[in-house]
Design a protein that fits this description.
The structure is a homodimer of 381-residue chains. Chain A has 381 residues and is of the alpha/beta class. Helices cover 45% and strands 15% of the residues of chain A. The mean pLDDT of chain A is 97.
């Protein structure tokens, strides 16, 4: 028997009952049924983002929602500071360049997150900056930025804060209103444990002012049209209906479990995985590690491509490699969505076997035992 | 018992086996498995569009692909002629306005399609126009435009032809290469009988030249990135994996049945529906009716909202009303995708019952019999 288990930081595994929910006969979106679905999802999305603001749902990849938020919030006359500390951060710099948004890039060493002090320095140096764009959990490097501290600062300065929360929302603490984030972005295929195809932005009143004031060249990704439709629980363009139908039970499940409990469980999975890596003599990549994904440095003499291939082909575990300059150098394990401690013991077990297969020197069971110790401590009380 | 049957011109019904295919456990998109899926789909999409050109798949509504094609093909220095003969045509005018594309709008009375003579006159009047944008099957009015004739003209003039084929491709004759269409657009939720969430554009070499030459403000909808990825059967942004997995068997099924046979069957369903309407003393709306959707004028004394509500609530048939200025005046029946003659007899039966319910004077069974006559003639040979 070989079961397929996704440990990639998106897409993640989709619960069986959600798969079947999405397989129900097609429904039409210009109906009372669908309006009610939109309304219920919206209320639960507000819980997910911890906000009273409107949360827009776009049919598209996370990139579409990030583009919508960044471009919408940066019409001419405004200037952005874009933190660049990984592959996804780089993409948001590219959005600024592509749309001719005036901006300064703040490069931060890969593996590190943005800290309030870095942002403060940059804002002090250029008083024209009135928008800060950063990635909460940089999936490519698994680095965590201090959104809470930075939010305190941007509110003091009257700047807008746009945060890519694609591998943060629903996995690690995200408090949109309390922290003062003006546009928080996520996608369906991470902690929301759905297939890819939906993207979300929670938009603050301050951000709406900016968006409504500007006239940027966008139609499909123009948040104004979504806002207008949302007033009647409607959508401007035909939505990915089957995915939205899956979204409702996912969000209900998240509310039932409670965000605090989910954040705690995700953190425990990350702690267990980090303990396992250490016990196996492996190094972690990130200096500021996030709890939604763990990056492990591939040891010398171990071939990364072979490692991932054997994880998948021999044992059914799909893990992720590195991107950009990290290609071949790290492997990444997701802790988001429909994954638990016992799945995680499994992936560590398979990792041990594959490392052994490449002649890497380790104590068989050391990784699994280290993770199990973390899990047992957390789960037997 | 009350079965739900969608007769809306998108979304249409999804075959049960395709629903289950999409309910299979999630797979990752950076894998050999997914590359092979992309490759197979691409080959079959070329058959669907009748083209040797590249066909780009975008995660989004049809509007995203139309925006991608129009904006990509109209960088500064070019001028477009946009036919406006319905709600969707109007949206493409709005794309031109939003992105500052130099254009002339050619208004055509609703219910009518664009003809080569209209386009010729407009091109003669303004030699600067080098791009023509129109809707093949204008879903809002059910009017058919003469893409073949217009394609002959645009090739003679060296102009690009961009066609919204959202309710045309896979339903009625579409011959991208033979007709010389440079960008043909469609969506997943019409003749492709999938849930909404995927959009497609077949892009000619001439169109690629234009797209590559220009630098328009777009990232998510920038076709250049999709083209580059497609060379390695890859995608630039996380795709709607479950929908793409449903796409493959749908396209295989279309190839097995053969496009000619599908076009013939769609035309037969439209003929049967039109015959039924006539037999019931109902008027058709379109002057140039398309075969993928039929619009019937709601008679005086019949309330359109009540009619649609009773169709749905009493008998389970979801039909569409009119949009914009046609709201309350017409009802529309789709002939696309997973719908056959026997489903169509059903919807006509329900229509008769609902008209009777509002005191409309008709001969019970006259509509059903008229459609049955058309179907029997076509299907018993």
């Amino acid at each position: 028997m070989k079961k397929l288990r996704l440990f990639t930081p998106g897409p993640t595994m989709v619960p069986e009952d959600i798969l079947l929910e999405m397989a129900r006969p097609m429904e039409h979106h210009r109906t009372a049924y669908y309006k009610d679905l939109v309304k219920q999802c919206h209320e639960l999305l507000q819980y997910l983002f911890q906000t009273r603001a409107q949360v827009v749902t776009i049919t598209g990849s996370g990139t579409s929602a990030a583009e919508a938020a960044i471009v919408g919030c940066c019409p001419p006359g405004h200037k952005a500071l874009v933190v660049n500390n990984g592959k996804f951060a780089e993409r948001w710099v590219k959005v600024c360049t592509t749309f001719g948004i005036e901006h300064t890039t703040l490069p931060i060493t890969w593996g590190h997150g943005a800290k309030a002090a870095d942002i403060k320095k940059a804002l002090d140096a250029d008083r024209k900056i009135d928008t800060v764009i950063l990635v909460h959990s940089e999936t490519s490097t698994t680095a965590l930025s201090d959104v809470e501290g930075i939010g305190r600062l941007t509110r003091e300065r009257g700047a807008l804060l746009i945060v890519d929360g694609i591998t943060a929302v629903g996995a690690i603490p995200v408090k949109t209103d309390e922290w003062g984030v003006d546009a928080y972005i996520t996608g369906s295929q991470k902690a929301l444990m759905l297939p890819p195809g939906l993207a979300f932005v929670a938009v603050s009143d301050r951000a709406w002012e900016r968006i409504e004031s500007g006239k940027m060249p966008m139609l499909y990704n123009d948040l104004k049209a979504y806002r207008k439709s949302l007033q009647e629980w409607d959508v401007p363009y035909t939505p990915a209906i089957s995915l939205v139908r899956g979204l409702l039970p996912v969000l209900k499940g998240i509310k039932e479990r409670g965000l605090e409990a989910i954040w705690k469980e995700t953190a425990m999975l990350a702690r267990g995985t980090r303990a396992a890596a250490e016990a196996l003599g492996l190094k972690l990549y990130a200096a500021d590690p996030v709890d939604s994904v763990t990056a492990v440095v591939v040891p010398d003499k171990v071939n990364e491509a072979t490692l991932r291939k054997s994880m998948r082909d021999k044992y059914g575990f799909q893990i992720a490699g590195g991107q950009g300059e990290l290609k071949g150098k790290i492997v990444r394990f997701s802790h988001m969505g429909y994954v638990d401690a016992f799945d995680t013991l499994g992936v560590i077990g398979a990792l041990e076997m594959c490392l052994l297969g490449q002649g890497f020197n380790l104590t068989v069971g050391a990784g699994v035992a280290a993770a199990q110790k973390v899990f047992a401590e957390a789960m037997t009380h």
